[in-house]
Amino acid sequence: MSEQYDLIAFGGGSGGLAAAQRAAEYGARALVIERGRLGGTCVNVGCVPKKVMWHASELAQSFRDAPAYGFAAGEPVHDWAALVERREAYIERLNGIYARNLDKRNVDWIAGTARLTAKDSVEVDGKAFTAPHIIVATGGEPLVPKLPGADLGITSDGFFELRARPDNVAVAGSGYIAVELAGVLRGLGANVQLFARYDSILRAHDAMLQQGALRSLAEQGVDVHLHSIPSAVEQEGDSLRLTVESGKHFSGFDTLI
């Protein structure tokens, strides 16, 4: 026997939550199905935790700049684990707010992985649900390149699982996520090398912004390698070695993003 709804949303991120709550405002009986934490990518492994990490990196730079403004300050000592613990507590509070908002609007939600069994039928862990309107708002997942040893690296999702700051990091990518994470890691004391496929970074943005970002990364101490397309990753003792298509090798990384 299946449970009947007017609308079912696959995904408890921005799209699924907004659709279900708006439908409920018009009197529909709505259900949200989410296999992870409520809030989606932005809240859990995107904008929100990234801004927390970015702000921490900016604060570290402010400490370094302070002596020029007359403050007696030394090199800051940062506790990455403490930051992550507080960041996760903040996100858990947001998860709770999303759950309470659904409850206020009489929207049901369940944790699990949904699959369509018919155009109006859904199954979650053996339980059936039906609705004339089903919205697929599952978002996306990071794309891992198909190259030897790719599984030795982590994605941007994995960055938020780090419980200690890595010392030597290779960031393969040149879009805004790669550039942001490179800057955050460098700001908090890691040695960072950024590998870009083409002749610049942030290529979807104005040339002036690209050049400004390149200068800023260089000033921070991030080594940027242009025309460097990863071709293989290998374990080399306790560290990783990255090879690019030109045949050049880069070694000594404890983390590859």
Portion in strands: 25-35%
Strand count: 15
Q: Summarize the amount of helix as a percent range.
A: 25-40%
- Strands of the largest sheet, in order across it? 1-7-6-5
Element string (H = helix, E = strand): EEHEHHHEEEEEHEHEHEEEEE
**Radius of gyration over C-alpha positions, nearest whole angstrom:** 22 Å
Principal-axis shape equals: globular
Ends distance? 46 Å
Low-confidence stretches: none
The average pLDDT score comes to: 95
Structural class: alpha/beta
List the total number of helices. Answer: 7
Sheet of most strands: 4 strands, mixed
Summed up, what is this model?
By secondary structure, this protein is an alpha/beta fold. It contains 7 helices and 15 strands. It has a 4-stranded mixed sheet with strand order 1-7-6-5, with no helix packed on it.
Fold blueprint:
Elements: E1 3-4, E2 7-10, H1 14-25, E3 30-34, H2 40-45, H3 47-65, H4 80-104, E4 108-111, E5 114-118, E6 121-124, E7 127-130, E8 133-136, H5 156-159, E9 168-172, H6 176-187, E10 191-195, H7 207-220, E11 223-225, E12 230-236, E13 239-244, E14 249-253, E15 255-256
Parallel strand pairs: 1-7, 2-3, 2-8, 3-4, 9-10, 9-15, 10-11
Antiparallel strand pairs: 5-6, 6-7, 12-13, 13-14
